[in-house]
Design goal:
The structure is a homodimer.
Chain A lengths: L10 H14 L11 E4 L13 H16 L9 H6 L2 H12 L4 H13 L5 H14 L15 H12 L3 E9 H12 L6 E11 L6 E10 L5 H10 L5 E4 L5 H6 L8 E8 L6 E2 L4 H10 L2 E4 H4 L9
Parallel strand pairs in A: 1-2, 1-5, 2-3, 5-6, 6-8
Antiparallel strand pairs in A: 3-4, 6-7
Helix pairs in contact in A: 4-5, 6-8
């Protein structure tokens, strides 16, 4: 098993290796330009607990804002950020996956204000610096080392088989771009994700692109296949996700007359990572009903995280 | 002059060749991943007169609709399409470039209705079939042979120098995608353009993406640098356009501390193509004031169109 060494020799691993073999050689081979694989990021390529990594980035900024302006401390989401009330924040995502976006909108107001009005270049510097310095609260490693080693190996295996890998994440596109190539080998132009509205401001030096404090697209649910089509112009052959918001993207992989591999990461390993199915109930149910490939962190992965560099 | 054989040996050609040499070798070399070149399509890579090629595609569909439903014949833009009133249609674009979008909105209503409600796959088949069969009204060639040979050579020259070429067009992204690789060697994932709103409709077979009869983004003016950033995540090194709507994109190419090549195609050759500056007045003025490279069809190009295949 030269390829995928962090995977145990299970039916899951064999399903993946066999699929790749089937679509790259023999009668069912798919032309290289159609070998598109799309990956959700949070909970699929890197850890998303106790909070998505970008949430920590935003919370630190909200904390800083509340530190500077005491009036913000009485107002959500600054209040939760200032009081480090992770329960409120965790509930926002759970509510979202259950279809209640009331608090998502409250949180979004803060998210947009946190980095609104700055240039995309300044935002990138802040994201890059955060990702390279901040530590995960419980896993004993920096965020930049929170990618799943087996998934990174899968990306390399696909690349070696002429696949083009894309990130199709609910997370912020411009948050992931500074590190996507280093962590995943996925170039910045292949990062699809949520975006804020942008403004082009002409100036003497070629103009500047500014983040407006307005939402643009939340790349989740049915927005995922739409964003994938818009960016790539093709239906993927492989899609990997871990939550209900990935369902449309998973369905979208593979047309009726063509094979398709749908991968769903199941977080069932409290010892090495986290054990949760909140926000993934419908996805797991569909995966079982449709015979999609469920990846058990506990059973299918020999190693979860690579040794930090 | 092995490269760019359809270009005459003029200062324009030398400016282009010298720039490419300067950013690919020696002290001012730019890393390959930053060698991004963006090209407007209509009037920059292929001809846009007497009407943009996509306009003919839409007009034929509007004519067909008015043919089936007589009540549409009294209503713009169906009226103009049915009566082949090219003057009305030409005026729409001229008004647009002068900043008056009243008729653009009228036209857009028809445009959206013309191909609304169909799947992106059906739209692609229609666009592909049109582009491979329809003829240009005066140039004596099919639309697929209306690309400028010198610009196609420039794309190849850039590619040979590790540039990544993108189309950043006001035209429809999904209209250009079926032929962009064949005509320009630009893959479908590198086509940026205007888009209509899309809907993801779940079904038994992987879901379908449907064109909604609603505008999404008109990729013109300040939207161009924003769309370029959103798609690529980088500031281009080279930008080429031909009209006022390309100005922000042209400005955006080249940061203060980095070289940038701005190319503006000037249509001044009534014998071999067309002679017009309508909609390009501000662009030409800026190009002269800023010292950008103006490409004269008449003087800089030895050949305008390749022999039809």
């Amino acid at each position: 098993m030269a390829e995928l060494p962090s995977w145990r020799d299970t039916p899951t691993r064999r399903a993946i290796v066999d699929f790749v073999e089937r679509v790259t050689s023999g009668a069912a081979a798919v032309p290289p330009e159609e070998r598109i694989a799309v990956f959700d990021n949070d909970g699929t390529l890197w850890t998303e607990k106790p909070l998505p990594i970008q949430a920590d980035f935003i919370l630190r900024r909200l904390h800083e804002m509340a530190d500077q302006d005491p009036s913000l401390r009485e107002k959500q989401p600054w209040k939760a950020a200032y009081e480090r009330d992770y329960a409120w924040l965790g509930k926002v995502m759970e509510d979202h996956y259950r279809g209640d976006d009331t608090n998502v909108r409250t949180l979004l107001g803060g998210v947009l204000a946190a980095h609104g009005g700055i240039s995309v270049d300044d935002f990138e510097r802040q994201a890059d610096s955060f990702l390279r310095s901040a530590k995960h609260p419980t896993l004993g490693r920096g965020y930049i080392d929170c990618a799943y080693a087996p998934m990174v190996e899968l990306l390399r295996h696909l690349e070696a088989n002429s696949f083009s890998n894309y990130i199709a994440s609910g997370g912020g596109r411009d948050f992931m771009r500074p590190i996507s190539e280093e962590i995943y080998g996925i170039r910045r132009d292949r990062v699809i994700g949520s975006s804020t509205a942008l403004d082009y401001v002409a100036d003497e030096g070629g103009g500047t692109i500014i983040r407006k404090p307005e939402a643009d697209v939340l790349d989740d649910g049915p927005a995922k296949p739409i964003r994938i089509w818009s960016r790539i112009g093709r239906r993927p052959l492989i899609a990997a996700g871990n939550s209900n918001g990935d369902l449309p993207m998973l369905h979208f992989a593979g047309a009726p007359a063509r094979p398709g591999l749908r991968l769903l990461v199941l977080h069932d390993d409290a010892d090495r990572e986290f054990d949760y199915i909140g926000g993934a109930e419908a996805a797991l149910e569909t995966a079982r009903a449709e015979g999609w490939t469920v990846i058990s962190v506990k059973n299918d992965w020999a190693t979860v995280f690579a040794e930090p560099k």
